[in-house]
Amino acid sequence: MRTVDCRGLSCPEPVLIVKRELKKDEFPMKVLCSDNAPYMNISRLLKTMKFDFEGKEEDGDLIIEVSGPTED
Amino acid sequence: MQENKKELYNIIIAGAIVGLAGVLLAKFGNPGNMGFCIACFIRDSAGALKMHTAPVVQYLRPEIIGLILGSFIISLVKKEFRPYGGSSPVSRFLLGMSIMIGALIFLGCPLRMVLRMGAGDLNAWVAFLGFALGIYVATLFLNKGFSLGRAYKQNISEGIGMPLIQIILLAVFLFMPKLLAFSEEGPGSKHAPVWMSLGFALVIGAVLQMSRLCMAGSLRDIFVMKDFRLFYGSAAILVVALIGSIATSSFNFSFADQPIAHSEHLWNILGMFLVGFASVLAGGCPIRQLILTGTGNGDSALTVVGMAVGAACCHNFGWASSGKGTTAGGRAALIVAMIYCFYLAYSQSVAKKA
């Protein structure tokens, strides 16, 4: 699984990076965050853009695993 | 969908609490339309610590201490305390200084701007145009890839530095106030009861840590990704400030006779342009920097220190405006800070790709 590392980046960089990475259409994709603000922002973006994803916490990092666009 | 709605309620409630605190703290003793102002209060605290000696703006504001500690405590409780740092510290320090220079030209941080708008101060509505434009211009650099670089995980000792200092400051304030300077007249002499200021600030620090309310972010997210969530938070502050100022009969719809304000529109616009621009580059408005500091963010801690040093400069060198208007030194400092911020934005975006 490819990993997009957004840890330690100031808002709104993580969202902008994820937005750009989504366009590559390569899934699954793992996004690493170090703070709740980007985690929430990215989750909201994924919901709005209709992607399936799962969030979890691992070793103090917040992780979002995007499996791909939601199928209707 | 359900979760999004919950987030929305959270931010609106957070904004309403901030607006309410702004109205009530002013009613119970804080300066006019300055129930809550991060720039003014950091400036007053810098004065209390004798970083500057302007006799009218010296008071160790419990609001600043409470915001950092409120965020610190809630992030420990929720296990969201994450010591991070090391992303362009010098640039962030200078952005903090720039934010303060802009804010003290206008006489208020984005939060006080909204409180002033709610109280009918039309000068603040004019300044808002500058604030919005500054944020918009900053997002152009964001879209060009602006970044101050990555912060890295730090030791816990790095993250708790600033919160610990707040505890010491609070102890000095309560038990050894003779060490500090306190204004006998002017805005610095006006303050709400200590327990009230501290109590509101602790609650707001916690609420803002959870809701992530940010004045600069509210417009930035609209420009960058058409996300209105944070905007509703700021709108809630405005609405509550409006209702509150009418209820406490402090509403005055005019340009003239506003407390601690002036009507030099061009400089108000430019001042808040700089605040908006520099805040977006720094990743958040002044209040957000305090909250992030509480969660262990060392870069935000340094931005806050930059704001305090900037405030000290503003008063030591006569750059800060007053009710009488701006000063020549202040206008010059604003232009220098503006040039610096544009240089920083350019060098960390467009120039990096070349």
Polypeptide structure, described:
The complex is a heterodimer of chains A (72) and B (354). Chain A is built from 2 helices and 4 strands. In chain A, strands 1-2-4-3 form a 4-stranded mixed β-sheet, with helices on one face. Helices cover 32% and strands 36% of the residues of chain A. Chain B has helices spanning 2-27, 38-48, 62-77, 89-106, 110-118, 122-143, 156-159, 161-175, 194-211, 215-225, 229-247, 265-282, 286-294, 298-316, 328-347, 350-353; strands spanning 84-85, 152-153. The relative contact order of chain B is 0.24. At the A-B interface, helix 1 and helix 2 of A face helix 1, strand 2 and helix 10 of B.
What distance separates the N and C termini of chain B? 42 Å
What is the element string of chain B, with H for helices and E for strands?
HHHEHHHEHHHHHHHHHH
Helical proportion of chain B?
Answer: 55-70%
The most extensive interface between chains reads: A-B, 20 and 31 residues
Termini separation of chain A (Å)?
Answer: 24 Å
What fraction strand of chain A?
35-45%
> Which sequence of SSEs, written as H and E, runs from N to C of chain A?
EHEHEE
Coarse structural class of chain B: mainly alpha
Q: What spatial form of chain B do the alpha-carbon principal axes imply?
A: globular
Would you tell me the structural class of the helices and strands of chain A? Answer: alpha+beta
What is the count of β-strands of chain B?
2
Instruction: Output mean pLDDT of chain A.
Output: 92
Q: How large a portion of the residues of chain B is in β-strands, by DSSP E?
A: under 5%
Cα-atom Rg of chain A, whole angstroms?
11 Å
Instruction: Tell me, briefly, the overall form of chain A.
Output: globular
The largest beta-sheet of chain A arranges its strands as 1-2-4-3
The overall pLDDT of chain B, averaged over residues, is 96
